[in-house]
């Protein structure tokens, strides 16, 4: 069965998961040749080691508390905070609390999202 991605004009619910957090998982909401939007769901203590994204990224914290380490320093993201990084910028993160956030990857000119 194919994974559903939102179509142009479709409304997507990105409210905090709250009580539904435990039953939720990371989901790709939108995927096109140039943009991918993923709702990341990380339980407290989850660490994603340093890596690089193939395009520019925008991270918007929807709930919880995330430490996002990039450019040599930790940056705290809480509900409502947003962070932008250039393509290929190394970064790592840790969920301090149960957290969800939107990750938007924008493909560089001439490339498609993975």
Structure, explained:
The protein is mostly beta strands. The protein has one domain (26-106): Sandwich (Jelly Rolls). Helix content is 0%, strand content 48%. The protein is built from no helices and nine strands. The strands form two sheets. A five-stranded antiparallel beta sheet has the order 1-2-9-4-7, with no helix packed on it. Strand 5 and strand 6 (73-78) form a beta hairpin. The radius of gyration is 14 Å and the shape is globular.
Quick overview:
With 114 residues, the chain is mostly beta strands.
Inertia-based shape? globular
Q: Mean pLDDT, rounded to whole units?
A: 92
- How many domains make up the 3D coordinates? 1
CATH superfamily: Jelly Rolls
SSE inventory with pairings:
Elements (H helix, E strand, L loop, with lengths): L26 E5 L3 E8 L4 E5 L4 E8 L1 E6 L2 E6 L3 E4 L5 E5 L3 E8 L8
Antiparallel strand pairs: 1-2, 2-9, 3-8, 4-7, 4-9, 5-6, 5-8
Descriptive tags:
Jelly Rolls; 114 residues; mainly beta; five-stranded antiparallel β-sheet; four-stranded antiparallel β-sheet; globular
């Amino acid at each position: 069965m194919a994974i559903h991605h939102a179509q142009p004009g479709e409304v997507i619910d990105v409210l905090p998961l709250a009580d539904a957090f435990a039953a939720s998982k990371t989901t790709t909401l939108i995927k096109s040749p140039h943009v991918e939007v993923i709702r990341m769901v990380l339980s407290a203590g989850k660490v994603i080691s340093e890596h690089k994204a193939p395009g520019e990224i925008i991270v918007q914290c929807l709930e919880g508390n995330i430490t996002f380490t990039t450019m040599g320093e930790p940056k705290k993201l809480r509900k409502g905070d947003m962070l932008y990084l250039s393509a290929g910028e190394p970064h790592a993160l840790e969920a301090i609390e149960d957290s969800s956030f939107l990750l938007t990857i924008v493909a560089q000119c001439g490339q498609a999202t993975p």
